[in-house]
Amino acid sequence: xxxxxxxxxxxxWFVKTGGIEGNLGPQTTxxxxxxxxxxxxxxxxxxxxxxxxxxxxxxDVGIFVNGGVWHLALSDxxxxxxxxxG
Length: 86
Description:
- The protein is mostly beta strands.
- It has one domain (about 1-80): Trefoil (Trefoil (Acidic Fibroblast Growth Factor, subunit A)).
- The chain contains no helices and 7 strands.
- It has strands at about 1-5, 10-15, 35-40, 40-45, 60-65, 70-75, 80.
- It is globular, with a radius of gyration of 14 Å.
- About 15% of the residues are buried.
- InterPro entries: Kunitz_inhibitor_STI-like_sf (IPR011065), Prot_inh_Kunz-lg (IPR002160).
- One of its GO terms (molecular function) is endopeptidase inhibitor activity.
- Pfam families: Kunitz_legume.
């Protein structure tokens, strides 16, 4: 996953596929997401703290609906995730 460019028309940061795995550094800050415990469930968070001198945006990943299509996007409304044993 990676953070897409800001969509100025929709006023939204979208999450998309195609991130680079395992390459720490300021060039890959758009690829860093975390899974955090959240009220008995989990949430996805974009907060790439891989670089001490980089200024980054830390915010939850939520759902943005546009034209009936659901997208992962940065949001103030958390999208809870539950993991089940298979």
